[in-house]
Amino acid sequence: MQADRVSDIAALAVVSVGVAQLKELDVSVARWRPPTSGWLGQPRVPGLASLVVEPKGSGVRVRLASSTEEGVDAAALLAGVVRLLRPARPLVGPELTFAPGLPVSAGMLADRVRDLLLPGETRDPHVRRADVLLTPVGDAGAAPACATRLVVDGTSWSRDGETFDVCVDPAVHRPVGRRSVPATDVAQASVRDDVAHLSGPGVRMSVQGWMTAGQVAALRSVGAVVGDLPAVLARQLNASGILTTGFAEALPDGADPLAWQVASIHERRHALRRYGPAAALDEWPTVSVVLVTHRTDHLAHAMRQISALRYPRLEVVIGAHGDRVDGVTVWELAQELPYPAEIVAIPGDRTLGEALQACSDRAQGALITKMDDDDVYGPEHIWDLVLARQYSGATVVGKALDWVHLQESDVTVFRPTYAAEKYASFVAGGTILISRADLGEIGGWRPVPKSVDRALLDRVLADGGLVYRTHGLGYVYVRRGSGHTASVRDEHFLTRTEATMPGLIRHPEFGTGDPT
Asked: What is the rounded distance in angstroms from the CA atom of residue 70 to the CA atom of residue 93?
């Protein structure tokens, strides 16, 4: 079979549940390239006898064969191709079972197609078949032992009597390629006969129904679309980093790149959180903030940063590293946090890597993120990392090192040297987020006294994992001059800057207030 893009294979996978048993599958995808050179995912298809992947023009050809006598359901094989060609690490959430008859809109969950509800199947009645059963509308058949039924009817998904508008596919409608200095080209929109026509500098396209991955990529130079748009298209544009409005006067000042970036990121957060599948599945993961400190004079600042975080499923593990940090004092301060907190006393002769591992061992969250005790974090910081993990499928995500406060000079510089929203080998160390399972799989934090962040990233990359760098908004890396653990001098951060401002930047996105 042939397909234009991986998203076409994903849509076909969910509508193929129960259609046929296959022993072999030969798929050619016309347009495909890996997120990083040489990367391939894992098909995770049971009974796979052979797998061949070879370039074909600007795309790829995949051939799979099953060793089982009866073959494998076509949906499972197609989902294996999706997992092989597209990074997709679903948010830690429920086990899904897919029923026959689902619409193509459920294709955004194709990477999670493993368990299928096939006619006439029998399973162990003592084991819960699924956490969530996905069924089409009108399927009132008896569900196997499962906790929840999620009914998918186009963009209308319903669970436990609550209806969700799900029209954003995070693997397609995403801001990959959106840089920290935002695009400000404006396209005009008009709708005729249910077809949206977009035109602007270097752009002329028609969109009917859902935006494709190719259309999202073609609009990368566009910062905003002005005109009346169907709600579904507007939400998909927003999730991709594009502002939508009926009036050009409502757009940010073109001479203010920070205002453009703030507006774009605000809209993409909203679209991805509200209109993606995670809301309908209620599967936003628990996150553990791990913070190690050996400086009592930084404790109050660190507690303020954590207290302001808005993510709803958060816990905090604080490592009191060495004799200079009084565990009792840390505990008393932690009682003011709005999140559960645990304090871990760590001897001073342990390295920073060992201290981080000791805290990570106590963490209960499905995801673990590292925070530093002197950096500045905005209230949406955790949300930004969780969303980036969802739409990138990367093993590790972190923020770009865009904003730096040099304490000795008392200036904040905007220095977007490392491109945002891309697969990379480097992220800001004070923003690393990884799942607890992946951290254990690669052997944890290395027991080194410094460069622990680089050591972790090297382990992930050597293991074939992906690292993704999202935008830097809402994070300020604080340089304390000669006393800082990093070896790079302050003068380095005063080169290749886009903007310099006195003092610490004042803006709500950084949790530092409004300059007005």
From this structure: 31
The rounded average pLDDT for each run of 10 residues, N- to C-terminus, in the chain (516 residues) is 95 94 96 94 92 96 92 94 88 84 95 87 71 85 72 95 96 96 94 93 92 94 95 97 95 92 97 96 95 90 95 96 86 91 94 96 97 96 97 97 94 94 97 96 94 96 96 95 56 80 96 76
Q: Judge if 202 and 120 occupy the same domain.
A: no
Same domain, 270 and 290: no
Q: How far is CA 165 from the centre of its chain?
A: 20
The parent domain of residue 220 ranges over 185-278
In a domain, 6, yes or no: yes
Whether residue 447 sits in one domain with residue 355:
yes
What is the rounded radius of gyration, in angstroms, for the C-alpha atoms of the chain? Answer: 24
pLDDT digits (tens, 9 = 90+) for 139-179: 755 556 677 899 999 999 999 899 999 999 999 999 999 99
Helices and strands (DSSP H and E) totals, the chain: 12, 30
* Global model pTM greater than 0.90: yes
Q: What is the per-residue pLDDT across 310-336, written as a single tens digit (0 to 9) for each? A: 999 999 999 999 888 888 889 888 999
Clarify whether residues 233 and 371 are in a common domain: no
Contact between 264 and 178 under an 8 Å Cβ cutoff? The reply is yes
Residue 173 lies in a domain: no
Ramachandran angles phi, psi of 80, nearest 5°: -60, -40
484 shares a domain with 452:
yes
Q: Is there a single domain that holds both residue 292 and residue 206?
A: no
Q: Are residues 323 and 414 in the same domain?
A: yes
Q: What's the CA gap between 444 and 468, in Å, rounded?
A: 19
- Give the residue from 136, 139, 132 showing the smallest Cα distance to 157: 136
Burial of 94 (0-12, 13-18, 19+ CB in 10 A): middle
Task: Specify if 310 maps to a domain.
Answer: yes
Final residue in a domain of this structure, among 217, 251, 278:
278
The length of the chain is 516
Burial 219-244 (b: 16+ CB within 10 A, else e): bbebbbbbbebbebbbbbbbbbbbbb
Q: Which amino acid is at 190?
A: S
User: Under a CB-based contact definition with an 8 Å cutoff, are residues 386 and 367 in contact?
Assistant: yes
Between the alpha carbon of residue 113 and those of residues 130, 151, 155, 294, 390, the distances in Å are 12, 16, 19, 46, 17
Residues 255 and 400 in one domain: no
